[in-house]
Fold this protein.
Amino acid sequence: MIKYTKPTLHKLEEICRYLNYNVRYEKGTFNSGYCIVENNSVVVINKFFDTDGRVNILLEILNTIIHDENQLDERHRQFYKQLLKNQDVIYKTT
C-alpha cells in the first residue's frame, strides 16, 4: 500500500486552490466533504485525520469536483492522474 506524505497532501491542496476551493481543517464529529457557502467553495476535512486520511478524502472529493481533467493545467493533471492510477492499483490488489 502506498503511504501518502505531506508533500502529496500539499499538492492536492494546491489543486483545490487552483479550482477555487478553500481547504479548511476543522475539529468535530462530521463527515468530510465540500460545499458552497455564500458563493464560496469550501472543502472541510476533519482536523483529527492523519495525513493518509486527509489525502484519501481530498482524492475522493476531487473525484466529485473534477468533471473533466482539462479543468487542470498540465502539471496538476499529470500529478492527479498518477495518484488515480496508484489508487486503482491499490483497489485491484485488495
Observations:
- Residues 36 and 76 are 23 Å apart (CA to CA).
- DSSP finds three helices and three strands in the chain.
- Residues 90-94 have pLDDT under 50 and may be disordered.
